[in-house]
Structures are given as C-alpha cells and as structure tokens.
Amino acid sequence: MQYALVNGIKSEPKKGLTGVCIGCGNQMIAKCGPVKLHHWAHCVNVQCDSWWETETEWHRQWKSHFQEEEREQTFYDEQLQEYHRADVYTTGGITIEFQNSPIALEELLSRERFYTQLVWVVNGLKFKGFNVTEAIPNPRETALKDYEFTGTSHLAFRKTDGRSADAAAQTISIRHPSLRHIKISSKHFTFSWRHPHMGWYSAEAPVFIDTGGHFLYWLRVFKQHSEDFYYLQIVSKKDFLDKYC
C-alpha cells in the first residue's frame, strides 16, 4: 500500500513511521528497506482486502499521473464483508485498476460487479508469446457489413448474409478484388498470444494492455454470428490520460 493514515493524514511510508489502515483501521508499519518498493504493511495478518496484490514500480508510475486524492480510494464490500482499495478512483467516478499479475476469472468478474464504472490497465510486458501482427481495416467499417472476420494473427474474410455465417464458405484475403478498395487502418491490429490469460477475453470493462512506450493496446471484440473476433485498437497514453485524469 502506498498510503496509510498518520495522525489522521493520508501519508506515504517513511522509515520509522506507524499509521492506520485507511480501510480496516488496523495498525500499519512503514516498510522502507533498500530492495523492495517502500510501502505500508499491516502489523498483524488481517483480511483487509482479498483483491490485494503486491504493488510494483509499474503500479506507482501509473498512479503518479493522477491526483493524490484519487489514489487508493477505499470502499466497503457488504457481500464479502471487507474493504477494497481501488488503485485510482477519479473525480468523474471511474475506477482504474492496474493489474500486474494474472487474475482468476471469478475475481475479475467480482471486481467488475463491484466497481460499476471500471477500466483495466494490464501489464502486457508480463504476457508470454504476445505479439501485434498486422494492421487491419476497422472491423466496424460499413463497407465490411457483408463479411465476417476470421483468423487470428492473419486476417481473412468470409461472406455472410447478415444472419448467419457458413463455416464452409470460402475465405478471402484483404487483397481479393472485392475487398481491395477497403482501407487499412493505422489504429487496428490483429495479434497472436501463445499463452493467453483467458479471463481478459471475458472482461466486460475496457481492457488496455501496456507493453511499454507511448501507446496502449485496447483489447476489443467484434460480435459476429459465428465466433467473435478479437483485435487490438491502439490508443496513445496521452489520450488515455487526457480522458481519465
């Protein structure tokens, strides 16, 4: 935890300080060793927030973009009878969770039910075998309304009557004469993921994947009559922060 109450004031950890948990009210001690990120820890083992994960420098860097009063906002969960600390709760009522470690589907869905306006930012540098592969047309392009997307890392199209998709129908590429006029987008991409964290495909809240650099990849789904098509939409971090900060 980055914050505890010291004499009633929301404070960051400093060597020798003790404080009180903003959620459960139990005593906290500042952990300020030379190796781990400086943080607050409960003095005794208490069940304060079952959704807690070890905070990393990646978390801190993201949280630093937001006002201090928006960081580590605490809410009480009547169903679980415990407190939850949102990484960020904006003045606009949006909860942003920065997720560094894998998360069980049950917990993911529980968080989405609890935080009614939730945005996920996920550390994609931890993903194994995750690669952005090729630029594609915007799946919501009107000119593609009679086609379904198929394939994963390499895109193909299947003609549809708008009500159903014939799995045996011929698939064609974007270079086919009937599709050659369709523009390739500079913001939409296919991807491959050798060892996917399947829970993210079930998320209902927006999922933004951080692979470092100046851009995020928004994991999007295009609903189809056959199987849904997952793709990435590139979003600059500046635009993301302008929207939510």
Strand content: 35-45%
> Tally the helices: what do you get?
4
Summarize the main sheet.
9 strands, mixed
| Overall number of structural domains | 2
Structural class: mainly beta
Can you write the helix and strand succession as a string? EEEEEHEEEHEEEEEEHEEEH
Given the C-alpha coordinates, what overall shape results?
Answer: elongated
* Fraction of residues in helix: 10-25%
- Strand arrangement, major sheet: 6-7-8-9-15-16-17-14-10
Total strand segments:
17
N-to-C terminal Cα separation, in Å? 21 Å
Low-confidence segments, ≥5 residues, pLDDT <50? none
* Radius of gyration over all CA atoms, rounded: 22 Å
Calculate the mean pLDDT score and round it: 89
Structure commentary:
There is one protein chain. The protein is mainly beta. The chain folds into 2 domains: 1-48, no CATH class; 49-245, no CATH class. It is 12% helix and 35% strand. It has helices spanning 57-63, 105-114, 199-202, 237-244, and strands at 4-6, 9-11, 18-20, 27-31, 39-42, 71-77, 82-89, 95-99, 118-123, 130-135, 147-150, 156-159, 171-172, 188-193, 207-210, 215-222, 229-236. The strands form 4 sheets. It has a 9-stranded mixed beta sheet with strand order 6-7-8-9-15-16-17-14-10, sandwiched between helices. It has a 3-stranded antiparallel beta sheet with strand order 3-4-5, with no helix packed on it. The protein is elongated, with a radius of gyration of 22 Å. The two termini are 21 Å apart.
